[in-house]
Amino acid sequence: AAARGAARAARVQRRVAVRAGDDALAFPDSDPLMLRTIRGEEHDRPPVWMMRQAGRYMKVYQDLVKKHPSFRERSENTELSTEISLQPYHAFKPDGVILFSDILTPLTGMNIGFDIDEKLGPVIASPIRTMDRVKELKHLDPDASCRYVGETLRILRNEVDPETAVLGFVGAPFTLATYIVEGGSSREYTTIKNMMFQEPEVLHALMSSLADSIADYVRYQADNGAQVVQIFDSWAANLTPADFEKFAMPYIKKIVASVKETHPDLPITLYIFGAGGLLERMADFGGDCMGIDWTVDMTDARKRIGDDLAMQGNMDPCVLFTDKDTIYRHVDDIIEKAGGLSAKHVMNLGHGVMQKTPEENVGHFFEACRTAHLRK
Predict the structure, then answer these.
(1) Alpha carbon 177 to chain centroid, angstroms
(2) How far is 142 from 99, CA to CA, in rounded Å?
(3) Which residue in 10, 88, 204, 223 has the fewest CB atoms around it within 10 Å?
(4) Would you say 58 and 359 are in contact if contact means Cβ atoms under 8 Å apart?
């Protein structure tokens, strides 16, 4: 008990120093497995992590929620965000630890008020639907408005082992705009599509402003320890291919091009759920890795996007409700279809891990990936 107490005290002291930005706390120089894989360097197995890795399927998280029922508190308090981010790391030892946060987190720093209702989801205080309201947006200063993100990333980078990558993430302008214009979650996207069809100049102005701020937010995450950043354009597959090219893709490319000017070696992943019809268009986004959902065969995905980009994915999350043998079989099948153990492939689910997923099966998933090279 005394040893555990001393270790905890040392960890707390170190976290205080990291939060203060102590320059003496240098990050490790070595690149973890995920970075080497994305870059196409030598490796003996694909790295693995899961979208929604930290969160609601874990009992330890559910217990924490009882004490801290507000999502924004959990994601905007450095200690809580750090604890939640590390819960799956301690339980499963994935090859990537992703920041526990939300794609809407930077909005308050842009003069867009929001809350996250535990039942309704995101709620925008005052939806933006006119050019006058777009002009009221502020350019994001991440260190002023969401310093806790930087603090959490620095702590994570100093607490995980050098072989484990720390991941940050952001929302793409179109997906952020769906919430901002609709006023929250939507199934039909009628309000933003009406703007798209009848007042495109307003939507373009909104997304251009968002792209400028999100580019700085990506840089901020990288400067504070994120080694890979994933862009989620969660709802872009609701667009026609022509509208995607006109209203979504230009702003993804704007972010990536801006970031690459200052951080050319930062791996950037793009993920769009349900985007089987957009893969060829997505492949031109200017980044390094593309997330593939389970509706696309990985062999087909590689043929469609070419050899330059790494791929991420793409096991159906429902497989985690089966058994150990089935999970192992699906993992091996996906690795083979993605090009084999040494391919530019990051193992993941095709979407986020689902609520009520058995934790034991999550463990089987990670173990199957970690030992895949031993079965060949």
Answers:
(1) 18
(2) 15
(3) 10
(4) yes
The one-digit pLDDT tens for each residue of the chain (376 residues) are 655 554 454 555 556 666 666 544 566 667 999 999 999 999 999 999 999 999 899 999 999 999 999 999 999 999 999 999 999 999 999 999 999 999 999 999 999 999 998 888 999 999 999 999 999 999 999 999 999 999 999 999 999 999 999 999 999 999 999 999 999 999 999 999 999 999 999 999 999 999 999 999 999 999 999 999 999 999 999 999 999 999 999 999 999 999 999 999 999 999 999 999 999 999 999 999 999 999 999 999 999 999 999 999 999 999 999 999 999 999 999 999 999 999 999 999 999 999 999 999 999 999 999 999 998 7
Residue 68, number of CB atoms within 10 A of its CB: 13
Please give the Cα distance from 283 to 309 (Å, whole number). 8
Beta strands 121-124 and 114-117 are: antiparallel
